[in-house]
Amino acid sequence: MTRGAIRRDANAKINVFLRVLSTREDGYHEIESLLVPISLADRIVVRPAEELRVEVAGAAAFSAGGLNLALVAALALADACPDAGGALVEIEKRIPVAGGLGGGSADAAATLLALNELWDCDVDAATLEEIGERIGSDVPAMLSGEPVLMAGRGERLAPAEVPPFHWVLVRFGFGVRSPEAYRWWDEDGAGTGPDPDRLLAAATAGDAEALGPLLFNDLETAVAARHPEIAEAKRRLLEAGALGAVMSGSGSSVIGLARDRAHARTLADGFEGAEAVVGPPPDTA
After folding, report:
1. Closest Cα partner for 98 from 57, 65, 144, 125?
2. Per annotation, catalytic residue among 9, 42, 138, 218
3. Residue 13 catalytic?
């Protein structure tokens, strides 16, 4: 079957909490986290072509390490799909690179899903997750497109019932690579945060007032020690009336929890380059 262009949104994610438990023998870290997709998204279009290639436009053409995860994903799926052919993958970047928002992983996940359809691969969800795990720790979570509880190094996932919350996203002109953030956590002897049961109960209930003070990220202190702008943004958000604020993922982005959409927009107005987002977007909750 010949298909035309297939379009997909590659939604960013935020970490409502991120708990680092230990360093693993394989060099990764044992973590727990609640990942929630947000309305900020890259745009992915795939279409038939003579050869397989990826073109990127917008905020940045590559991840902080120079590796295009969408291309890695396309090549990995081609290996698993007997009917794979050429394809042009076009990515319009809107998610900040190395911002702790999973932009590269989101692009990889959306590329896998779009090419699976374009090439009529019929690769099932479990196999796509296995492929995604080899590409990056966040990719399996991003494939679901829904809130998930992540454990292990990211390979153990469980669905999470989280209604939409309104957030303000503060971005910076610098990125933080995940390996560096975890290395700093190791170097500083940073601790492990609290049991997330109360946070999860508040999130599931849609109780923003209760959720705000419970947000935490075990990587934040170590990263903010090297990038004080992060701590300053968090302080300013709280002073401006955010219900809570926390660094997302390995940084550098900071998210503030708002009461509603109007509150999120008001908070965003206080920061250059900030924007109000909703997560999860209503159509994925």
Report:
1. 65
2. 138
3. yes
